[in-house]
């Protein structure tokens, strides 16, 4: 099995997981009656971290699709990287790294923000909210698990990009390409 | 310049930055008079994310020191990786990746938690606190900037570990070592 095929498969998986995460967070809402006629609706806009997460996951999913399009349409890039397009390989590697860290970071920020909603923070007098909006919080929790799986898949993808790029270099000389 | 020397330099820098971050957060405290005799002392223990960050940064700083010790004491590992110790190279690469993601994630969670303390979250009735504990919050902010620089340095270190490992492999066959 070629690195390019594994890479394409991983990109499809991460695109689907990112889209799923974004949709689960975006379309999550729960309305609760507090007193007589007073109702409160919980949505992803109540927390900045969730709002940012939806944008990050959407953007990175589009990036993954673009990478797949490159793989499927441009015939020159279906083959393994060679010395002649190593700068292209560097670009893909750096973008993949950045994408993996951005998804991981956005997800971690959302988990941290949600933790406050689950447990509250007594010393700062922040009250917990998930005891009232249970279904809403469960759906967010599921979305964040998906998001972490996507981040792990993207970390593996960036390792494969690193492998495809760095194996072009000589093991004896620093940053010198290996002769064929 | 050899990869091993760049790697050692980056590890020294990240150890220092991680230790600095951990100390800045750990020893930050501010006492404020609220009413007549009522005082409130802000420390890193008020927020779980900061508490976890101190532990993460301390643990990863110790890991970096151990990597430096390996580099300085064991003569066999001062040379570049060769095909004979490639499994060792895989171990270092995976540990470096994990360390970089853990530091980045811990720091991002702390930033997210601190954002609530700076801005509050009106829709959830969480009040901001940094208008009262300004000096405390400024020191935490400085620590988190250090933490992010450390995370970037560690990401570069793990790229170098990837380079040192993957350049041993053949560019034509999948996961086959290149002949000398």
TrEMBL record, chains A, B:
Transmembrane segments: 6-27, 48-69, 98-119, 140-166
Membrane-topology descriptor: Multi-pass membrane protein
Keyword Isomerase recorded: no
Family: Belongs to the Casparian strip membrane proteins (CASP) family.
Name under which the protein is recorded: CASP-like protein
InterPro entries assigned: CASP/CASPL, CASP_dom
Keyword DNA repair on entry: no
Xref: Pfam families: CASP_dom
Subunit relationships: Homodimer and heterodimers.
Domain of life: Eukaryota
Any one of the GO CC terms: plasma membrane
Record domain Casparian strip membrane protein: where: 4-153
Keywords (A to Z) from UniProt: Cell membrane, Membrane, Transmembrane, Transmembrane helix
Subcellular location(s) per record: Cell membrane
């Amino acid at each position: 099995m070629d690195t390019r095929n594994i890479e394409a498969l991983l990109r499809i998986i991460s695109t689907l997981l990112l889209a799923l995460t974004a949709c689960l967070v975006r379309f999550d809402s729960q309305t609760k009656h507090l007193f007589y006629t007073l109702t409160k609706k919980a949505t992803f806009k109540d927390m900045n971290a969730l709002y940012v997460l939806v944008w990050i996951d959407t953007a990175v999913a589009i990036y993954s699709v673009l990478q797949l399009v490159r793989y499927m349409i441009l015939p020159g890039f279906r083959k393994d990287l060679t010395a002649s397009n190593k700068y292209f390989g560097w670009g893909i590697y750096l973008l993949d790294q950045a994408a993996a860290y951005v998804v991981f970071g956005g997800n971690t920020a959302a988990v941290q923000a949600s933790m406050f909603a689950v447990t509250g923070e007594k010393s700062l007098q922040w009250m917990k909210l998930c005891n009232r909006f249970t279904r809403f919080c469960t759906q967010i929790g599921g979305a964040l698990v998906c998001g972490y799986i996507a981040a792990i898949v993207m970390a593996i993808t960036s390792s494969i990009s690193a492998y495809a790029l760095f194996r072009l270099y000589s093991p004896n000389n620093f940053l010198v390409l290996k002769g064929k």
